From TrEMBL:
GO terms for molecular function: ATP binding; ATP hydrolysis activity. Gene3D superfamilies: P-loop containing nucleotide triphosphate hydrolases. CDD domains: ABC_NikE_OppD_transporters. It is found in: Cell membrane. Coiled coil: none annotated. It is a peripheral membrane protein. GO terms for cellular component: plasma membrane. Keywords: ATP-binding, Cell membrane, Membrane, Nucleotide-binding, Transport. This is Peptide ABC transporter ATP-binding protein. One of its GO terms (biological process) is peptide transport. Pfam families: ABC_tran, oligo_HPY. Belongs to the ABC transporter superfamily. It comes from Virgibacillus indicus.
Length: 338
């Protein structure tokens, strides 16, 4: 389909460490269409950041390496793309914002300098015009005193302000894809909502596709059209945000949703999934979630579940959705409830 912006196809990114090979991204397939906001969720250590770094070809090598699969960006496989071409793609066709914008802003240059450069790559205008445009951009993203901030250095701004600058940069580049890795995690709730609004505007006005990575389902609910749930390097569930929040299918997604704070409930004690995300290991057999899953049965420890299709284009990597396990599924559905 021509409106496909990004397609990860069985992506495998491994780390070769002293203690062995770590399949951090273990066969991930994800599609992002034009104008779509896709969320990747999962607890810390699930492989979300390594997935996004793989797209940008920014996985630290060594120890990391893309060992298989494809990353098709508008039909071009980025896995085989030269560093020279990637430099053109990064920050132009694909923009990325991180949890800590200091890693992507250059501490040695003023905000204006960096923003002007970004603008001038895309528009043939002189320095003065670019400066005035940069000030406009800073105003659009809600930076007060924009005409003073433009001459300041990144370290002089708060985290929220730096994140706004990153979004202003992304907007002036007019990328086809914005990858945001935990962009609001370090920010307080009010600023978080404002940053999400800015991303939503970018998506609405320019039809920019967004791949939003977060451990926070609240953020997903705010902005994403579709959600991909990752666990231990694999996609375990996929569906529309609405369906996944209302009716999660995979036991891991159910656990994530159960641990969301509920505004209307007085009870303050939050549920959390027992145990932790296991470090990915080579040659592991069985469902990665089995040691933590309350529905696990023998087969879960003996075979790897595939991503089973369920109704409405939904996918769930769980034997409970294998037709062969039909009876068990019905029982589980009845037991799991919500
Ligand atoms: N530089 C690295 N060297 C070795 N292992 C790494 C490195 N970076 C990430 N990993 C491993 O990859 C897995 C996924 O990490 P990451 O993508 O950062 O998780 P998330 O973003 O979902 O919290 C983890 O198990 C982590 O140990
Ligand atoms: S395959 Fe088994 S262990 Fe894995 S999520 Fe489903 S029921 Fe739980
Ligand atoms: Mg991460």
């Amino acid at each position: 389909m021509s409106d496909l912006v990004l397609e990860l196809n069985n992506l495998q990114t491994h780390f070769f460490t002293d203690s062995g090979e770590v399949p951090a991204v273990d066969g991930v397939s994800i599609k992002v269409h034009k104008g779509e906001v896709v969320g990747i969720v999962g607890e810390s250590g699930c492989g979300k950041s390594v997935t996004s770094l793989s797209v940008m070809q920014l996985v630290p090598t060594p120890p990391g390496k893309i060992v298989g699969g494809e990353i098709n960006f508008k039909g071009e496989n980025l896995v085989n793309t030269s560093e020279k071409r990637m430099k053109k793609i990064r920050g132009n066709e694909i923009s990325m914002i991180f949890q800590e914008p200091m890693t992507s802003l250059n501490p040695l240059f003023t905000i204006g300098n960096q923003l002007r450069e970004a603008i001038r790559i895309h528009q043939k205008i002189n320095k003065r015009e670019a400066r005035s445009k940069a000030i406009d951009m800073l105003r659009i993203v809600g930076i007060p005193r924009a005409d003073a901030v433009i001459d300041e250095y990144p370290h002089q701004l708060s985290g929220g302000m730096r994140q706004r600058v990153m979004i202003a940069m992304a907007m002036s580049c007019n990328p086809e894809l914005l990858i945001a890795d935990e962009p609001t995690t370090a920010l307080d709730v009010t600023i978080q909502a404002q940053i999400l609004d800015l991303m939503r505007n970018l998506n609405d006005e320019k039809d920019t596709a967004i791949l939003l990575i977060t451990h926070d389902l609240g953020v997903v609910a705010e902005i994403c059209d579709r959600v991909v749930v990752m666990y231990s390097g694999q996609v375990v569930e996929e569906g529309t945000t609405r369906e996944i929040l209302k009716d999660p299918k995979h036991p891991y997604s159910k656990g994530l949703i159960k641990s969301l704070p509920k505004i209307h409930e007085r009870e303050q004690k939050l549920y959390s999934i027992p145990g932790t995300v296991p470090k990915p290991k080579m040659g592991r057999v069985g469902c990665r979630f089995a040691p933590r899953c309350e529905f696990a049965f023998d087969r879960c420890f003996q075979e790897d579940p595939e991503l089973y299709s369920i109704e409405n284009d939904r996918l769930s990597r769980c034997f409970l959705y294998d037709q062969k396990e039909g009876d068990r599924t019905e029982n589980a559905e009845a037991n799991i409830g919500s």
